[in-house]
Amino acid sequence: MADKKTFYITTPIYYPSDKLHIGHAYTTVAADAMARFKRLTGYDVMFLTGTDEHGQKIERLAREKGVTPKEYVDNIVASIKDLWKLMDISYDDFIRTTEERHEKVVQKIFKKLYDQGDIYKGEYQGWYCTPCESFWTERQLVDGKCPDCGRKVELVKEEAYFFKLSKYQQQLIEYIEAHDEFIQPPSRKNEMLNNFLRPGLEDLCVSRTSFKWGIPVPFDDKHVIYVWIDALSNYLTALGYMTENDERYKKYWPADVHLVGKEIVRFHTIIWPIMLLALGEPLPKQVFGHGWLVLEGGKMSKSKGNVVDPVVLVERYGVDAIRYFLLREVPFGADGVFSNEALINRINSDLVNDLGNLVSRTIAMIDRYFDGLVPQPGEFQDVDVDLRQLALSTPSAVEQLMNRFEYSNALAEIWKLIGRANKYIDETTPWILAKDSDKRERLGTVLYNLAECLRMISVLISPFMTRTPHKIREQLGIKDESLTTWESLSQFGKLPPGTRVQRGEVIFPRLDIEKELKELEEIQQRMKQASQSEGATRTAQDTVQAGGEDGQQGHRLNSDDKRQADGQISIDDFVKLDIRVARVASAERVEKSNKLLKLILEVGDERRQVVSGIAKYYTPEELVGKKVILLANLKPAKLMGIESEGMILAATDERGNLALLTVDQDIASGSKIS
Ligand code: MSP
Hints:
Layout: E1 6-14, H1 22-40, E2 44-51, H2 56-65, H3 69-86, E3 93-96, H4 100-115, E4 119-129, E5 134-136, E6 154-163, H5 165-178, E7 183-184, H6 186-197, E8 204-205, E9 207-208, E10 215-216, E11 224-225, H7 228-232, H8 234-237, H9 247-252, E12 257-261, H10 265-279, E13 287-290, E14 293-295, E15 298-299, H11 310-317, H12 319-329, E16 336-337, H13 340-370, H14 382-403, H15 407-428, H16 430-433, H17 440-460, H18 468-476, H19 513-534, H20 559-566, H21 571-575, E17 579-589, E18 597-603, E19 606-612, H22 620-623, E20 627-631, E21 637-639, E22 642-644, E23 647-648, E24 650-652, E25 658-660, E26 672-673
Helix pairs in contact: 2-3, 5-10, 6-10, 11-12, 12-13, 12-15, 13-15, 13-17, 13-19, 14-15, 14-17, 15-17, 17-18
């Protein structure tokens, strides 16, 4: 027999947090559904997840708790594994970056890259906050101060190793241009090419000496390997890469897909492929960047107190309802808003009304009219042929959509069949047929077809929902596993007549929307209060945000969170700001930087020099003559050795777009904004 085709799928490895929220569960549930789908359709699947356990933040949190970093992460990793168990995540391996199998190979990778000259020793320059022991990049500072504690930062230099990203830049551009499927969805591909690759890459700092909780550089143990070389390598180390036991590597590499949230697409489509090119390894076939699940008030974050706890939801509504909702509600590439109301409505309409009713009506009628035995079908009428055709064409429609990660549309396709079957009941009116003994054969055909549809539906939903298929099969009396395979869907009529059905509990009880909303609101309020009173004892996760301005800062407080936590300001605070209209008199690129522009601004009679990190968004030419908005009384600072006297204001969105603020009428430069 020919070997099965393989399919290697990964989630990102998670930062250890004692409270993963529903947004985290989203990536993993999606990966799990895909892994199950591929297993069902005949692939030999390797599904990897794990945890990303090093870094300064963990070191500090552990110290605050009086435990070792390893003790600290061990506890949390156990709770993450519990969550995955609760959500029926069928991973084949769970890699921890603190495991020996990972650390040893990361050191080998680092050494190889160093020996071949792709990693070299240099000097890292960054803004350092001494009390927080954290480095920040220019853009991460809030008003020139530490975004974590608001205190003064100083520009410091430390010896560090750098990875020559620039050397492979052209090769990667060509690869991406030649492989449309590599970065999905396509919008993310353009973003990577236009915003990062084409403007030019800077070499990446890949080691640190300012903390110890990391994998030591093998030939220079003053340094630990910093964030991305450690974390990204997990996709290979889990397979036994560079070890004697490398069968899994030989079998599964290159990965078929890395599923990642949109904020880490950049690391997976620039740093990771360049590491692989340097190692001489084939690149993953695809990196799929999905959107975020956000709340109405913005991105979930524990310090905002607006997280949705998957454990609470699973305990109330069951794992299948939550898995279904996550995959059905939002198209996978886009951002989606999570709301309790949408969740309850989906459960009531799709699961209770559509699927639940179809199961209970069908089983109840077989029970009532045929003493619980699946009847023998007779001749088919048009309406039967119609139903059968849809049942037979649904699997390939679902398969095509799943191959494009269109989970929501794939589910919609299955629900069309469920809807069609419900309509079939209304059209064939079995309760009327039952009154007429001449119509017994017709009644048998109708109920047989419904039972057979349910069998097929139980197979179709099985990648998405883990419990319901068994409940349906139990009620249908299916024990024979050959009736639950993907191949069994190619034939309508496999369910043997005479099978004894078993009336069971309602598979999805109807929810009282008012009551549920009230109770969920109360729970979420309580959690919010608890997290606010926890105050400073934030966990690693909410203080962690992947990727700084140059991908070198893995661990930082999200500055949006900080502003929220600080609360409102008074008008007295606002008037301290001297904000002015300024005209760009000239603009030029700052040498050796692909981010900074040096602008000379005309502010009334005055001239100001301002350095701004907008080179990726505006060319110097298009800026000249523009009226921009200047924060004029910001303390001067030096950027790349150039004095900057103020800051021009810009808006950024979650997609990484940036737009400069300007005025909507022509108004003299120097005009004050109030
Ligand atoms: N440790 C890094 C990944 C390293 S991979 C070599 C990391 N970890 S994380 O714990 O912060 O995030 C794990 C995954 O959860 C990411 O894909 C991230 O996008 C996803 N999500 C976190 N919050 C999310 C939402 N609110 N919505 C959807 N996905 C979210 O990043």
